[in-house]
Amino acid sequence: MYSQAKVIAGGLAHIPVVIAVFYFILTTFNKRALKFVEQAKTKKPESKALEPKKPVVSKAENSKIEAQKTETPKVTKKKHADVPVNIYRPKTPFEGTVIENYSLLKEGAIGRVNHITFDLKDSDPFLNYVEGQSIGIMPAGEDANGKPHKLRLYSIASTRHGDNFNGNTVSLCVRQLQYEKDGETINGVCSTYLCDIKPGDKVKITGPVGKEMLLPDEEDANIVMLATGTGIAPMRAYLRRMFEPTEKEKNKWNFKGKAWLFMGAPKSANLLYEEDLQRYLADNPDNFKYTKAISREQQNTKGGRMYIQDRVLESANELFNMIEDEKTHIYLCGLKGMEPGIDEAMTKAAEEKGLNWSELRPQLKKAGRWHVETY
C-alpha cells in the first residue's frame, strides 16, 4: 500500500514531464501557424497571371535601339494607281479588227518581225490599257487534238493613246517563232498567225494584264531599259510616251528624267523602230541615251561577239551611279536566256563600285525599281 505522502510525491514528480510535452505541442503549433500566415501574405491571387520580368536596359542601350529603328526604315513597294486588268477573258474575248500589219526589218535581216495594229473602238466595255501591259491573242483554228489553240500573251508596243493618238488602237511587235525539229522547220502557231493576218481580219483579244512593267508616276524618274529583239515592245511605248511630240501634248505627264536604252540585235537590219529612236535621240540629247549591241557586227573587249551584257560592263560606272539614285527604275524585257548574262554583268559592274549585286537586286525588287518580263 502506498502512503498518501508517496502518492502526492509521485504525482508531483510527473508534473515536469507533462509541462514539457505541453510546451512541445504548443511550440509546434505556433510554428505551423506562423508559416501559414506568411504563405498567405506572399501568395498572389490565382486569377492573375505572373508577368515576366522585363530586362533591365541601360539608357545607352535604349538610345542605340531607338537609333536603329530610325536608321533602317521599312522598304515598301509603292502601289500604282488602279490600272485596267482582264476587261476581256478567254471565255468572252473581244474581236478586234486588224488595221495594219507590216515588217519592221530591213533587207538582210534575220527572221521575220512585224508591227501589227488592232482597232478597239467597237469594244464594249472599252478595252483600255496603259504602257507596260500585255494583251492575249487567241489564234484561229484548232490544235492536233481538235481543241482551240491556247492564247499567247504579247507585250503592248503602243501607248494608251495608240499609234494614231486617238486612244482607240493597240499595237504589237511580233517575231515569228521558228525552230528545227528532226530536220524540219517548225513555225510557232500564234506568231505565224499574227504575222500572216491582213487588214480587215478579225482577231480574238483578251486582257489587258500585267502590273510588273508599269512606268513610275514621278516625272523626274530615271528609266534604264535593257531589251533584245521584240523585247523592245514595252520600251517603245515608254519612249513614245516620253518623247513623241503629239503624245506629250496629250499627256498630263511630262518626263524630266533620263532614259537610257540598251538594245541587243544580231544585225543592224534587225534593229527595230530605229528611225524613231534616232529622232528621239536628236531631239532630246539631255534626256535620252541609246546604246546598241549588235552581236554579228561588233566585238567585245575579248574579241567575241558583242552582247547587251558587254555594253552593261562598259558602262558600269555611269550605270551604277544612276542605280544608286532612288529615282532610277530598271526594265528588262526579251528572251529568258538573256537574264543570266545580264545578271553576271550586273554582278561585275556592281563589284567595280564596291557593291554586292546579290544583295542589291532583291532590294531594288522590293522597292519596285527592278522590273523583269522575259519569255
Q: What percentage of residues falls in helices of 4 or more residues? A: 25-40%
Largest sheet: 6 strands, antiparallel
Distance between the termini: 127 Å
CATH topology of the largest domain: Rossmann fold
Describe the strand arrangement of the main beta sheet, using strand numbers.
4-3-8-1-2-5
Indicate the CATH architecture of the largest domain.
3-Layer(aba) Sandwich
Subcellular location: Cellular thylakoid membrane
Binding site for NADP(+): 155, 175, 230, 295-296, 334-335, 373
Transmembrane segments: 7-26
Biased composition (Basic and acidic residues): 44-54, 61-74
What can you see in these coordinates?
The chain is of the alpha/beta class. The protein has two domains: about 120 residues, Translation factors (Elongation Factor Tu (Ef-tu), domain 3, Beta Barrel); about 150 residues, 3-Layer(aba) Sandwich (Rossmann fold), CATH 3.40.50.80. Helix content is about 35%, strand content about 20%. The protein is built from ten helices and 13 strands. The strands form three sheets. It has a six-stranded antiparallel sheet. A five-stranded parallel sheet has the order 11-10-9-12-13, sandwiched between helices. The protein has a two-stranded antiparallel sheet with strand order 6-7. Helix 7 packs parallel to helix 9. It is globular, with a radius of gyration of 40 Å. Its cofactor is FAD. It catalyses: 2 reduced [2Fe-2S]-[ferredoxin] + NADP(+) + H(+) = 2 oxidized [2Fe-2S]-[ferredoxin] + NADPH.
